[in-house]
Amino acid sequence: MPDGSDSDYLAYVHGRAAELRRTAYLLCGDPHQADDFVQETLTKLYVRWPRIAKMDNVDGYVHTMLVRVFLDDRRRGWWKVRLLTGHPEPPPVEGNPEDGPVIRAALAKLPPRQQAVLVLRYLCDRSVREVADLLRCTEGTVKSQTAHGLTRLRTLLGVPFPTAAVSPGRR
Amino acid sequence: MRDGDEMNDEQADRLLRPLRHEPEAPAGYDVSRAMAEGRRRRSLRRWSSGAALIAVTSVTAGGGTFAVAALRDEKPIPAPTTTTSVAPSVVAAAPDFPRDCTVVRLPTDGVKKALVTSGDPEGRYLAGRLYGTSVTTIIWKDGKILARPEMDGGDASFDDINRAGIAVGSAYVGDERQQAYAYADGKVTALDGEHTAASAINDAGVIAGAIGPTLSEAPARWDSVTAAVERLPLPQGITVGRARAIGEDGTIAGTVAKDSSKTESGYLWAPDGTGKAMPLPTAKGKKADYFWPTSISGGWVLGRAVFDTEQTRDFAALRYHLATGRYEELKTYMGYDMLLAENGWIAGTMEQPMILAGSRKVALPRYGRLRDYHVSSFSADGRVVGGYTSDSGSDGVGNEPLLWTCR
């Protein structure tokens, strides 16, 4: 029974840190930066642990914290890029659109929230509903961010627009 | 919902599939550091909120105004190696205190992120951790790299080191099993026992720590690096705990609880192994719920009294006199990381790293413009402090390993 103690915190972290680190890594693509995100998330978690431990959905809360740490970090860098280049539409990415680093570079040019939505949906296999919960937004917003993100990603990578899109889609 | 211009999920999956990797390098986050930093943030929150007013008032009433001055912290940030403490020129027989303190960053072979985890009583050896490298442990001697000994397992850390340069610590091996290690004569060896962690070593080479799975550890001791592990005796009904600090005479301070669902509180073992619970002190007009010892030196145990309510956890700093069994409340709360020297001085962190010498508070110089500090070692003479910074930068939390030296 979680009581907000250090031993509870340790039990929780040792059970869940690997999953947090995986999500952090998929979000940013860099193992060291992923560690930094996890470190900050675990610190924030400890600060609030006496209260959080009593919540129903600790996992969801912690993953929301992680995504926020990622968004905070990305927003700083992203605004810098926008201010320096002077326009919000970045140039296309050079290279094979099937190469991991090329896709990662293109993904990094998307607004942070679109990056998070695409990673959570297509790399972490989260449903639209789960992503909406994690980002504390509506399912409609997740869907529109997904569509916008994919369109921009495709443009940046120079991937042809699909002709047939017949899929029930994951919800 | 979707039109011909949009991708379906399968196509999106395919587009992003090359990014589906598992992180390869061993995990570089540090749970104990997250807890330490989390505790510091918890206490800072209180200092900057309503509870802080009460604390500051009681500090002032207790006869000291240093804490209030420190909280205001209006001093400019000194550059690295700048002297902060100034010796008075015309004071005869003034009480001793650390002077002319300077700070340097310890060398790390080009590794950007590193921290100090412990130091020896003489202030010559420091142990630390490196991030972003395969070998994550490092030993410094006299401010220079002595060795980068590899400890098998993840989250490896040397948690104490003695005057002979023997370091002890632990790592997680295999399926999240802790293993205690020692570094001596240039090599790392596992201490006796599985599911073990070493927390402290004294100059006689006696090691204190814990044995048992992570959440049901019991206090343990090794008489030397090669000795068999022995469980420290626990009273009836107490099943979990950990030995955390060991004095030069072999007295061990630790924490124990009935079981892992309970919060631990202070316990002492004499060199012959006989134990007794530390009484719960009264501070701020309240009896504490727990006492957590952090450091033992010169016949005193330094620690924090813990006051819990439903939503908050507050602390007061006290020292416990081993010979008389009496507590003394410190005039100043020195943070979660405070450490005790043999002469009674205390190193800790409030708004910046400090040494408390009697009633005099000596601020240790900041390193560059960095603002977040932790203190992790304090020499017996109170003149050498090891620690690190933890400021967040544009690329996440950075750590600079630091060595402060005073006259």
Automatic annotation (TrEMBL), chain A:
The keyword Translocase does not apply. InterPro entries: RNA_pol_sigma-70-like, RNA_pol_sigma-70_dom, RNA_pol_sigma-E_actinobac, RNA_pol_sigma70_r2, RNA_pol_sigma70_r4_t2, RNA_pol_sigma_r2, RNA_pol_sigma_r3/r4-like, WH-like_DNA-bd_sf. Residues 19-79 form the RNA polymerase sigma-70 region domain. GO terms for biological process: DNA-templated transcription initiation. One of its GO terms (molecular function) is sigma factor activity. Belongs to the sigma-70 factor family. ECF subfamily. This is RNA polymerase sigma24 factor. It comes from Actinoplanes utahensis.
